[in-house]
Amino acid sequence: MTKNIVLLPGDGIGPEVLNEAVKVLKSVVGENTFNFEDHLLGGCSIDAHGTALTDETLKACQMADAVMLGAVGGPKWDDPAAKIRPEQGLLGLRKGMAVFANLRPVKVHLDLADASPLKAEIVRDVDMIVVRELTGGLYFGTPKGRFMEDGKEKGVDTLVYYDYEVERIVRLACKLAEDRKGKVTSVDKANVLESSRLWRSVCVNTLADFPNIELEHMLVDAASMRLISNPRHFDVMVTENMFGDILTDEASVLAGSMGMLPSASLGEGKNGLYEPIHGSAPDIAGKGIANPVGMILSTAMMLRYSLDMEKEALMIEAAVEKAIHEGARTADLGGTLSTTQMTERILSAL
Ligand code: NAD
User: Fold this and answer.
1) What residues are paired with 131 via a beta bridge?
2) Which of 268, 244, 8 is nearest to 139 (CA)?
3) Could you give phi then psi for residue 159, rounded to 5 degrees?
4) Catalytic: 139?
5) How far is the CA of 268 from the centre of ligand 1 (A)?
6) What is the pTM of this model?
């Protein structure tokens, strides 16, 4: 049966990298295997409809077999006082699609160990995956807002986790670890936070179902240090929303460029949201020099997790590896290839 893929190009370099990823996808699976449907999200949707995510776009994404997203945001919509912001579209989409787990693999390509600001001997052979809780915690907890109290203004965010939210994400991390080295590092702040102490105990209970998985707990401050001093220590890292937000950006430095890294956001069903980890990069938008690899590797994750096409996913990953091994480099990796030329090198490696 034909699969339906929703494309959300978004803003800035989003459309540039998504366009390239679709070329690679079609070359692997054929021109007519999938139905593609374009929708607006983020700043472009604010301009067209006055909202970052329309009901129609959300519905299309909920009904799709998978969703591919470029990036959203940019200076045009950056006014901190604005009531409608591009990121609201992204948060609304994650919540609306009920994708509670964000998977970010960080793999350092052998030939790019020198591209990282860290020493090559530290980043060489890093191959880890961060599993970040995406729909709970501080970003969603209530009460939230700015309130007056005894003549003083206070800002409030609420950090709340339910046991079932922790269990489902830890379970997912363990399943991923079973196909890897079998090690899960759970990152929390259990020495200070009550929600972290709940997280830790649910983790331990959940692990009873995974006798072959080795579980370690690590405080977030120690984890952030370990990520840059000995990143090979990690196999699968699982953590809550805000810690994951911060640690995944830190981990991206290992790979040399934000432009290299893919992500998948998954829920209970097969449908998922696939996007590179970078933003809309307004500083290089329209110049045709964005690195398309993060978006292309996100496509491979979509084939693997939403469409049961592991062979095709491996083909794309191998082609990226080969193109890089043969010296293909965009500007962020110290090279001169344009976005399109980089894709052509990957296509010829296929
Ligand atoms: P960014 O990721 O857009 O850019 C950070 C730096 O990395 C820039 O110098 C950029 O040129 C470079 N870069 C990013 N992707 C690249 C690529 N594929 N190839 C080459 N270089 C690349 O982060 P930012 O500058 O902090 O944010 C810009 C806008 O993107 C903001 O409006 C922000 O809110 C938004 N944003 C969106 C998402 C998303 O859509 N998921 C994520 C992060 C930021």
Assistant:
1) 103, 238
2) 244
3) -100, 105
4) yes
5) 29
6) 0.92
**Residue 280, pLDDT score:** 97
Q: Is 128 in the pocket of ligand 1 (CB under 6 A)?
A: no
What residue ranges do the domains of the chain occupy? 1-98+263-350, 117-255
Mean pLDDT of 285-305: 97
- Ligand 1 geometric centre to CA of 259 (Å): 9
Name beta bridge partners: 149: 152
Backbone angles phi, psi at 169, to 5 degrees: -80, -35
User: Which of 258, 265, 324 has most ligand 1 atoms within 8 Å of its beta carbon, as the pocket-test mutant?
Assistant: 258
Q: Is the pLDDT of residue 166 over 90?
A: yes
**From the CB of 332, is ligand 1 less than 6 Å away?**
yes
Tell me the CATH architecture of domain 1-98+263-350.
Answer: 3-Layer(aba) Sandwich (3.40)
Query: 117-255: which CATH architecture?
Result: 3-Layer(aba) Sandwich (3.40)
Burial of 123: CB neighbours in 10 Å, binned 0-12, 13-18, 19+: buried
pLDDT digits (tens, 9 = 90+) for 269-291: 999 999 999 999 999 999 999 99
Q: Please report which helix (H) or strand (E) contains residue 314, including its range.
A: helix 310-325
Same fold flag, 1-98+263-350 and 117-255: yes
Both tokens assigned to 79: 């006014």
pLDDT digits (tens, 9 = 90+) for 33-61: 899 999 999 999 999 999 999 999 999 99
Most informative mutation of 18, 260, 280, 333 for ligand 1 (most atoms within 8 A of CB): 280
pLDDT tens by residue, 67-77:
999 999 999 99
Residue nearest to atom 5 of ligand 1 (CA): 281
* N- to C-terminal Cα separation, the chain: 25
CB distance 139 to 91 below 8 Å: yes
